[in-house]
Amino acid sequence: MLIDFDSGRNWQQLASLGARAVIFIAEDQSPGRIFFSEKKELTPLQFPCFWLPRSQAEQIFGHLEIRESPQSAHVQLQARSVWQNQLAKNIYALIEGTGPQRGGKNLIIVEAFFDTEEFIVGNSPGADAAASIATLLEVAKTLAGHPRERSVLLVATSGQAQTLAGMRDFVWSIGARSKDLRDQKQHLQKELQAARTNLETLENIVFPLGGTTRDPDRDALIAKAIKQSLDHSVDEVSRQLVQLRLGTQTAETKRLIKQTANRRLIYRRLSWAEGFDRLSDEEDQLFRQLLPKAVARNNMLADDIRRQQQALQSAAGLRDMVRDYQIAAIISLHLSSHGNGIGGFHRGWLYNLKQTVNRTAIYSPLAEILEQAAGPPVGDAAYQDTLRPGHLRTWDSWLLDKPNLGGEVSALAGYLGLSLVTTGDSRAFWGTPGDTVEQVDFQYLDDQTKLAARLVAGITGAGNLSNGNLPRDGFVTVTARANLLLQGELFASYPAGGTTILAYQGTSMFYAMAGESGTFTIKGVADKKNVLDKL
User: Fold this and answer.
1) Helix 281-322 vs helix 165-175: angle between axes, to the nearest 10 degrees?
2) Are 119 and 33 in contact (CB under 8 A)?
3) Is pTM beyond 0.90 here?
């Protein structure tokens, strides 16, 4: 079905009427993000949606007009979109301070994201969304040439569109306890050694297995190495058997049912076997077919553990670097090239904080510092005193697009976290094909960058940034395991490796993917003392 892109949520009616897919036709080459975000679904839906500008659609289908007959008799659409578990990176650099004892043991962290949201895969230039990382690079150039008394850690984070995944991981890394990191390291080493033992056992199998005496130790190692693959094979055959029994019963079907049931019984006998040296011909045949699957699964498990070890080693390295410092403040940049200035915010729309969470007094000294450092406006870019909201204008009235902000994460973790955000801008093209260089106001961006540099310099050169009080630490990490309930089993014990996890806290969506062992971790969830919503 072809449908106008500015048709709101009318595509749902097409889906309910039996449409298999829809192609959105955009009249404009650069529609705003509101037309994309209004079509988001909170639950997964098997209904492919495609997007084409009208000019390209007319090249394919001809002149588009409302008619009673189909625009085209046959249309074939091909698309492939899958979730993959990838190891993303945060990039950081330390600029040593000029004060005594490595900058007086004080550290200022300045963060910006370097990627962008994609409503259409592979079609999000992200020009205006790059204002934050561009400003961070300019600030880095200034600080490198003229170091301040405090040391400064510059951080470029990834995963901005995945509920600030990079920032949440960074905050977890700098705040993680050394004991927790050591425990995780030891656990991963133990799991990797077990996978290596399984692989060594499988690769050293020499047929025939029979001999003059049984080898119970070898058989126990083999049983352990093939257990997961054997359980999966039993489940696979059981599902085939269920489908056959539910289908039309013919002579051929009955023959297949008998054959499949016998195959399942052989697999079960393999799982019950005390040894593998006296297998029947049928059992030996299935056992040999099972070995490559077991080797592949243990290789995937080992690769997944190595990826986790790499991430853990990186987190431990960052933790070791900042452990000697007292983190005075964490500044996150969320800037664009349109607006009326820069404001400071310690909250946003990632966490729906309780009304009882009042941080105004905590950030009052920092508000004074920012106001003094800002000075007069730079062109059209002026400092907005948003940290001290009044009765006439609340803090959330400055941000039209209701963004998730990095300062929320650092403040939730008990740091003096702050976001410097462009005010008066809805960031209407972020994440869309229309976020091109032509949309960037370079004059305003230059003025805003100078103002942002002033504010960062004011914070890094100021005395006390707080009155001694800090936000309540409510940063929570959730680790769980996803299991599958296999056919014929009483308990869900088979690890659901590769399962995509979508968790909600309020309206915030946290994504994770289960590893080959079935475990997954979500970092940066708010505790019950800060929010009412549960995960």
Assistant:
1) 70
2) yes
3) yes
pLDDT at 71: 64
Amino acid residing at 364? S
| pLDDT tens readout for residues 271-296 | 998 888 888 899 999 999 999 999 99
Residue 203 corresponds to which tokens in the numbers above? 């690769």
Distance CA 17, CA 38 (A): 21
Q: How confident is the model at residue 102 (pLDDT cuts 50, 70, 90)?
A: very low
How many other CB atoms are found less than 10 A from the CB of residue 277? 15
- What is the C-alpha separation between 309 and 302, in angstroms, rounded? 10
d(CA 288, CA 282) in angstroms, rounded, equals 10
Assess whether pLDDT exceeds 80 at residue 326.
Answer: yes
CA angle 314, 104, 94 (to 5 degrees): 30
**Nearest residue to 533 via CA among 498, 497, 508:** 508
**What is the per-residue pLDDT for 103?**
42
CA–CA distances in Å: residue 397 to residues 345, 375, 459: 12, 23, 25
Residues in the chain: 535
pLDDT digits (tens, 9 = 90+) for 56-67: 888 887 777 766
pLDDT digits (tens, 9 = 90+) for 433-445: 999 999 999 999 9
Report the DSSP beta bridge partners of residue 519. Answer: 481
* Helix axes 442-461 and 131-145, enclosed angle (nearest 10): 50
How crowded is residue 206: how many other Cβ atoms within 10 Å of its Cβ? 5
Residues 6+ apart with CB under 8 A from 323: 178
Cβ atoms 78, 132 nearer than 8 A: no
Rounded-to-integer distance, Cα 332 and Cα 347, Å: 12
In this structure, what token pair is assigned to residue 197? 């033992």
CB 283 within 8 Å of CB 266 = yes
Looking at residue 530, its pLDDT comes to 96
Query: What single string gives the DSSP state of each residue in 269-288?
Result: HHHH-S-SSS--HHHHHHHH
Q: What whole-number distance in Å separates Cα of residue 141 and Cα of residue 158?
A: 21
Residue recorded with tokens 């025939």: 208
Residue 434, token pair as written in the block: 């229309």
- Residue 24, CB half-sphere, CA atoms under 13 Å: how many? 22
- The Cα 237–Cα 474 span in angstroms is 47
Q: Pick from 411, 404, 406, 408: which is nearest to 362 by CA?
A: 411
* Strand bridging mode 106-113 / 151-157: parallel
Rounded to whole angstroms, how far apart are CA atoms 454 and 8? 43
Q: What are the tens digits of pLDDT across the range 69-78? A: 676 667 788 8
Contact 496, 484 (CB under 8 A): yes
Q: Which of 62, 59, 50 is nearest to 25 (CA)?
A: 50
Is the preceding peptide bond at 433 cis, omega within 30 degrees of 0?
no
